[in-house]
């Protein structure tokens, strides 16, 4: 009788081992798959590299007097093809009355085009183009007004709209966000 119990125990125990062994192998394979996936993510380009990606824009597609909106690094990017009147008004602006005085030539390296982030410097809302008292940008959230050079003229915003790093490759071709 004790021999039968010993045989029964060995059979039962080998069945349990096989059951747990098969399950363990599945878990090990599952974990190995995600370990390799994690290593691939770690060794590949990081999210910061994708977020820092530069974009190239053909400016000839933006008609004079119009504003185009692109998404860049998860934010709206405004590119405005300024008219001669808009350029003259921005260049002749008295800097002493501005909250964040920056000359037009500093903000627009190619005077025909303004390139700025479409994020209000007050609380991060998206301003409306060709609106407000200066017909530049107007933030409807709290009433900030920007001129056609995206400089703060009136309202609670403390700073001008941000001008991202950009480089003109040709008269009407620009790359925005290119890292050195």
Strand percentage, roughly? 25-35%
CA-to-CA gap between the ends? Answer: 83 Å
Major sheet, described briefly?
4 strands, antiparallel
Which strands sit side by side, in order, in the main sheet?
5-6-7-8
- What string, H for helix and E for strand, traces the elements in order? HHEEEHHEEEEEEE
Mean pLDDT across the residues is 83
Number of helices: 4
Give the oligomeric state of the chains in this entry, treating copies of one chain as homo and distinct chains as hetero. single chain
Number of strands: 10
Radius of gyration: 30 Å
Structural class: alpha+beta
Low-confidence stretches: none
Shape: elongated
Helix content: 25-40%
Question: Which features characterize this protein?
Answer:
33% helix, 3-stranded antiparallel sheet, alpha+beta, 180 residues, single chain
Task: Describe, in short, the structure shown.
With 180 residues, the chain is an alpha+beta fold. It is built from four helices and ten strands; from the N terminus they run ααβββααβββββββ.
Question: What does this molecule look like?
Answer:
It is a single chain. The chain is 33% helix and 25% strand. It is built from four helices and ten strands; from the N terminus they run H-H-E-E-E-H-H-E-E-E-E-E-E-E. The model has no long low-confidence stretch (mean pLDDT 83).
């Amino acid at each position: 009788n004790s021999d039968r119990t010993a045989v029964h125990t060995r059979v039962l125990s080998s069945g349990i081992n096989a059951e747990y062994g098969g399950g363990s192998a599945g878990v090990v394979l599952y974990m190995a798959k995600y370990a390799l996936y994690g290593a691939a993510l770690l060794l590949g380009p990081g999210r910061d590299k994708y977020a820092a990606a530069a974009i190239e824009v053909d400016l000839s597609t933006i008609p004079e007097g119009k504003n185009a909106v692109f998404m860049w690094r998860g934010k709206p990017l405004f590119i405005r093809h300024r008219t001669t009147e808009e350029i003259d008004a921005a260049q002749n602006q008295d800097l002493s009355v501005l909250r964040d005085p920056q000359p037009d030539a500093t903000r627009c390296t190619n005077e025909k085009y303004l390139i700025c982030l479409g994020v209000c410097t007050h609380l991060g809302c998206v301003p409306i183009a060709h609106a407000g008292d200066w017909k530049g940008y107007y933030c409807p959230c709290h009433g900030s007004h920007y001129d056609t050079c995206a400089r703060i003229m009136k309202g609670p915003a403390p700073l001008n709209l941000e001008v991202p790093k950009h480089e003109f490759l040709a008269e009407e071709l620009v790359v925005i966000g290119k890292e050195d």
